[in-house]
Design a protein that fits this description.
Radius of gyration: 20 Å
Number of domains: 3
Helix content: 25-40%
Largest sheet: 4 strands, mixed
Shape: globular
Structural class: alpha/beta
CATH class of the largest domain: Alpha Beta
Number of strands: 10
Order of helices and strands: EHHHHHEEHHEHEEHEHEHEE
CATH topology of the largest domain: Translation Initiation Factor IF3
Mean pLDDT: 79
Number of helices: 11
Strand content: 15-25%
Strand order of the largest sheet: 3-4-6-5
CATH architecture of the largest domain: 2-Layer Sandwich
CATH superfamily of the largest domain: TusA-like domain
Low-confidence stretches: 79-88, 170-181
Amino acid sequence: MKINARTKISKIIKAHPEAIEAIASVNPHFQKLKNPFLRRFLAPRVTVAEAAKIGGVSPDVLLNQLQAIGFEIEEDIPSASARPAFPSATRTGTPDLRLDVRPDIARGEDPFKKIMAAVKQLDEGQTLLVINRFEPIPLIRLLRQKGFTAAVERPEPGVVHTYLTKRKASGDEDPAGDKPAISSPDQSDFEAVRNRFGDQMKTIDVRHLEMPLPMVTILSELERLPPGHALFVHHKKFPQFLIPELESRGFRLVQHPVDDGYIQLIIYKE
């Protein structure tokens, strides 16, 4: 099989299952491909070039690994319409705020709220530097929708600097995005949806899963959800990064917070 930097990881794995081990050996970030849930979610969405970017390596590194197990590498000639998924703005000057979230990640904690709190402190034209071990693509997608620019640098292996700049005033809109586009304003909405679907609702519990398995599991279940059914989810917290994925698939969501470490969600289509 001939492959290049624009070949989807899922296509490569389908053609040669040993590619999972070959890719995973390049970088610890790629170990996630060994997990069937994560592989099902990530592989169809990521090309060799995008995977290399996430792992902080050159696409040639991955291609060389794949060539060693029998793939044929062809010259990659991008089409005129090809565009990077997240084109970075040019970074200039010194960041106004700096936030290192690597300790949070090491503890298994989601740094989203901490980053959003820092974003709130930015005035127009100011920049927040987020230091992480990988490129925070969901965060970049969210803030681009709210008028921010993003630039990504890799000063050393395993370290990613993401510069988030507030490029325009947001008026009455909350730039931190604490309130998702899909949410339940009160308990009555949640109960109305639960009563509406009744027995036509599948229940899953993702509270015991480590990130990002809750999101992957939810999306996998939604793919298999019969028409006219809803998905009832027991979760530890509101899944901020899941919202854009639900919106892109036409799903709605209502929530019922039970306590600080437990929230119930119902995901459905009209």
